[in-house]
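debug: dumping io for the single-chain case to check the tokenizer round-trip. Nothing else runs in this session.
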Amino acid sequence: MAGAITVFAQKEDGKRPKHNTEPLFVQWLLIGIALLFLGLVVLMPLASVFVEAFRKGAAVYFKALSEPDALSALKLTLIVALIAVPVNTIFGIAAAWAISKFSFKGKNLLITLIDLPFAVSPVIAGLIYVLLFGAQGFLGPWLDDQGIQIIFALPGIVLATIFVTVPFVARELIPLMQAQGVQEEEAAASLGARGWSIFWRVTLPNIKWGLLYGIILSNARAMGEFGAVSVVSGHIRGQTNTLPLHVEIVYNEYQFSAAFAVASLLVMLAVVTLIVKAVVEWKSAAHHTGTN
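debug: decoded output
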């Protein structure tokens, strides 16, 4: 009986249409077009960054990276990412938990607000914070009386970065947690587990790969953000310039080798991010294959 079922299944598989019905030359043509496009638009510009960075030699390259302003920009970039990414991670988990596990009025509005930074220009986001916390803004005079500086300082840069990176963690977790449902959490609750225990022992293991993926994307955007940070930073060298802003300033001063050297550092950070992203995707695929 089992053998008959196997033969029948094989016959049925043979009747199923193949996914690749196009001729072989069409497949290779499409692959070639995709590779050519990526080569011209992505790979060649990235390669040119390193070519220009090392045009005057390795000594000039490493000198540009070791300058005090460059080191200050690197330090500020890392500090901003270390603050903004955890904040958005906590918010993303809380928002995804609320949206996927509970029913409440205003859920669609909350989802829309989470997606808002995708639709708003980063420059507009920076202007919003200037209008709120600037010297002539709504809260500016009060903040000045209290001796608190938001704009043209670290807090403003962090706020602008948080705004543009809000959706990444939440948007990775919401569909994942909705697909998983609430059955496992309800089973754990019926056995006497409390909220934090359910989260650490049930929910977090199920979402860990999606969570890591969202964190990686959020971190990449935080380190590379230019528009919003440019508006609120004030471009104070050695104090409020992140790496992208430092690249712009050095380039405008016709220090092309130094500009491309710092830009290559951003490229390397992006490559590391992509490698980690690929590892997370591979681990996630292996995890899903193992569970299935």
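debug: round-trip ok. Residues 101 and 181 are 7 Å apart (CA to CA).
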